[in-house]
Amino acid sequence: MNADLGITSITIQCRTSSCTYPEPSMEWLYQDQPTSNMYEMYTRSIPSSTQGPCILPEKIYTSSLFISQNTTWSDNSDKAVTFFCRIGYSDSSKNITSLASRNVSFAVRVTEAFLQQNNQNITSTLTVTSGEQVTLTCVTGTSRPAPTIGWYIGSQLIASGTNLIFTPSNTDHNEVIYCQAYNIDPNLKVDSNKPSLFVIVRVTEAFLLQNNQNVTSTLTVNSGEQVTLTCVTGISRPAPSIGWFLGSRFIGSRTSLIFTPSNTDHNELIFCQAYNIDPNHKVDSNKPSLFVRAAPKILDISPNYKGYVGQYTMIQFDFYSNTKENLTVTAQPSNLSGIIHWGTFLPIHLDNIPVYSSQTPTPDFRATLAIRIMSENDFGQYVIEVKNIIGPDLENVKIIQQITPEKPINFHATSIQEKQLSLTWQSGYNGGFTQTFVAEISLDNITWNNVSEVSARNRDGWFSTVIEGLIPGSEYYIRLYAYNINGRGDFADVILAIRTLKEIAYASLQEVSASVGIGVGGAIGGIVVGLIGTIIAFKIRRQLNGPKSSCFRSKGKTDDEMHAYSNTEMNSQTVKPVYEELNKGNTEQSVYDKISPL
Question: Domain named Fibronectin type-III: which ranges (predicted)?
């Protein structure tokens, strides 16, 4: 029969089998190895006796061995022995060792404990992940009875039992964890190794902050002005890796982002992204869209505007501005000195055109400025300024006085041939716009044909044209005027009356020369000169009875800034309608009073 002192106490008895005298000695022996023939003394016992059926002085003697529960071997070793009883007599030959025996396992007090994970002892640090379950085991040396085990994090008892299943949290970081065991005396507890907990905390959230404030749906920034943002995560260990993104574009990798937005960033999403354990498990912060307030941009404004004294000049243009903060539209003369009566403005009108979410400037507003021209001093350069909270955009425009060209001057013929003639003149002021000179020709001073147009971009200068296809020996009337986009100017002060040279056959000239030579002799030279003078003389106070229409051609001579062209076979019906009503005064006056001397 086996006995376990870790479970219970035991009592072993040894008794003489018969009446005995004198009193024997009784000893308890043990054998710790079943195969050994060696017996060790455990204890001597003073037997008790009973009369029993014996006749005095004989008695029956009994020895009892009591071992209490949790009795350990002297060295607390794991000891299991077999007890025997030996009865000794004065006559040693009568000594008896009982054949009966009892196997007894002694208690073993817990003297050591070990904290293990996956059958491995944990030394200085136990790395765990917050929120993820962990299983640990407390292993003791041989102990009898089974030990009582308690688990501690820091000084707090968290569980009991050989195995611990727990879920660490961030508050457990750097706390020591261990098990404590005892099995006989609660005052004799032993602690296991005490590793400190390193609690990994996975990044689960991130926040985009500006000035320690969480940014929600929209982040308003100014184009060109530096912005500082911060990416804040929840508790995490180890420190997270952080990336910054503008749309899909990577722009930074630190906790704080310092960047300078531009107008092209408008409406892009900005956010930070964080992870600290697995790059495949990144978390995004809130993703506000950028509202980039940018300086306005004037779009499609004309550089020149027409103006008339006493009237309003309307300047209308579109402009881009993605913010209405401090939005103003103004116009001022370029030369602020000496401006007293430069005009007045009607109220600025900003049409509520929807704001477009585009990276390319599109018109968000339409402005209409009305400048009243009070005098000629109000014409000239103006600066249009559109300004918002970020800054201005400026454009220069010019209000130009709308006048027709001045009449040409110094209009005269420079060459007259049988079928062509050359005309030259000097321009007057062009009214601020490109002017075109028109030469008209008539055979009767009544019906006029446009035979030459010369376009000049320069303000003034000398111009010329050649009219071809004329009839030899015919008389023509020629007049000249200029026009620009504002209308036709006055005719030149003179109307030229010119007779082309007659064609003279060579044979006739020989006959005339011979005849005159025979009759007059040395007077031939004077006669010829007189004849030529008669041919090229102007016919004064006479209207030509020749053909009413003919084919005219002209050649224009211009400088680098003018363009010449001609219209042939044109009559008065082909002149542009805007210039059809000519100055009747020129035709009503005597044409001979307007003849320019050659």
Answer: 407-503
Count CB neighbours of 21 within 10 A.
13
- CA angle in degrees (0–180, nearest 5) for 561-564-565: 155
Token pair in block for residue 7 = 């479970």
546-583 core/surface letters (b: 16 or more CB in 10 A; e: else):
eeeeeebbbebebeeebebebbeebeeeebeeeeeebe
Count of beta carbons in the 10 Å neighbourhood of residue 225: 11
Task: Yes or no: say if 179 and 122 are a contact pair by the CB < 8 Å rule.
Answer: no
User: Domains of the chain, with CATH numbers?
Assistant: 2-105 (2.60.40.10), 113-200 (2.60.40.10), 206-293 (2.60.40.10), 297-400 (2.60.40.10), 409-503+538-594 (2.60.40.10)
Q: Give the span between the Cα atoms of 576 and 485, in whole angstroms.
A: 12
* SS3 state of residue 132: coil
Contact at 8 Å (CB) between 331 and 383? yes
Q: Where does the pLDDT of residue 275 fall: very low under 50, low under 70, confident under 90, or very high at 90 and above?
A: very high
Residue indicated by tokens 């009369």:
51
Q: How many Å separate Cα 413 from the centre of its chain? A: 70
Residue 346: pLDDT over 70: no
Phi, psi of 519 (to 5 degrees): -80, -35
Sheet with strand 241-246: strands edge to edge: 249-252, 241-246, 270-275, 283-284
Please tell me whether the overall predicted TM-score, pTM, comes out greater than 0.70 for this model. Answer: no
Average pLDDT in the 195-224 region? 93
Three-state secondary structure string covering 285-303: CCCCEEEEECCCEEECCCC
What is the pLDDT confidence band of residue 506, given thresholds at 50, 70 and 90? very low
Q: What is the DSSP string of 533-560?
A: HHHHS---S----S-S----EEEEE--T
More confident residue, 298 or 506: 298
Among 553, 565, 427, smallest CA distance to 483 is for 427
pLDDT, position 545: 33
